């Protein structure tokens, strides 16, 4: 859930199984092409890495980014033109983009003990220290590992599944909102609004144990919080690709980052103040129940964090609990609304597991693997976090080219997801491919990989599955959008750019 650069941060250090237990055999020509040398055994220098034309002195390729609305689509076009590896040169740095799963795996297998994502990580950590604040998502080295080690127990499956009752309650509120806003023909004119409400409500539930009703939010805090998170994401891109001139004078990106961070903390503190006193009191006497308690309560019971740090982390997690989950869910619901046959297959599976009055929990969700396949297939076609960069401490050879240490290397997730050499009918929405195809585990990395992977992956997956269960159980969904592919854009995150108009027809009619 945040990725400012990649929201939430790291589950655990062991490899994440992304293929649902499927074996993968490296048989494609693309995978075999990731040898670090050319046919004659030589490795080409970094200067020989393919690069688009249009570089000019000083600003280099910076000018190519002017006016673009989707960085992910921008890179897809350059992969088509230049091949599976290319580089962009910016003021003071080079960024290498790679769209080959075996090469991507090689990068992550060499990320070392203290993985670094990119230059924006250090830039933002510098700004936060100037603000006398900390956020382990943007720290590096030993500092990052020490703080990350304090946030581990909450991620065990028993604890994550402990939130299912609250996630079910919020999902049923989504259903209420559908009935409240749909027109006479059953259409919700823009489902994105309801998805945003749901995303913030599940975030406040597991962070504070709160029960918010955002659609009836009289104070307007929900929208302000969403705007602040979106503003921060826009700043990330500028802080990543430009020289760190903000260390000399306050640039626009620097001022905008601080403004949005101030707003995030201001609103987060309102929520923290509202719930933290009761949480502190319960935590002081609690010695039994743990699983399913709010994150803030669990942190205070463990005692590894001070009250100040626990509240600070809770505010960050609140911001983290919205955008990427909301955008992914929006793409999932759109995809389902365009494919009624997929809905019916999901409906058949979930009704074979639970009866009408039963609510999903950890055990039952594990018996509904098709919900996970729906999410994976959506993430393949619409990678909301399309960039999971790494900056290695050592030199590496990729696809026959030498890449020096401290160079930002970015996997091209959208390009790989649409590659016909990796997927049959790559533009077709087909969740079944996740049960029948051999898929390289480093093609789909929506939550990253390794120690710096998404901290809240399990929370995000469970809350999305609970919502999908409730909606598929109660409605047939359809869309009259004229295209199969939903319009999207974004420099850091991919997000829908048009209203998602969905007709919700109750199944019990």
From TrEMBL:
> This protein is called what?
Cytochrome P450
Q: Which CDD domains match?
A: CYP24A1-like (cd11054)
Organism name: Amphimedon queenslandica (Sponge)
What Pfam families has UniProt attached to this entry? p450
Annotated residues that bind heme are located at 454
What residue range is the signal peptide?
A: none
Q: Can you tell me which family this protein belongs to?
A: Belongs to the cytochrome P450 family.
- Alphabetical list of SUPFAM superfamilies matching this protein: Cytochrome P450
Q: Name one GO molecular function term.
A: oxidoreductase activity, acting on paired donors, with incorporation or reduction of molecular oxygen
Domain of life from the UniProt record = Eukaryota
Q: Does the keyword Heme apply?
A: yes
The protein's required cofactor(s) are namely: heme
Q: Which UniProt keywords apply?
A: Heme, Iron, Metal-binding, Monooxygenase, Oxidoreductase
Under the heading InterPro entries, the entry gives: CYP11_CYP27_families, Cyt_P450, Cyt_P450_E_grp-I, Cyt_P450_sf
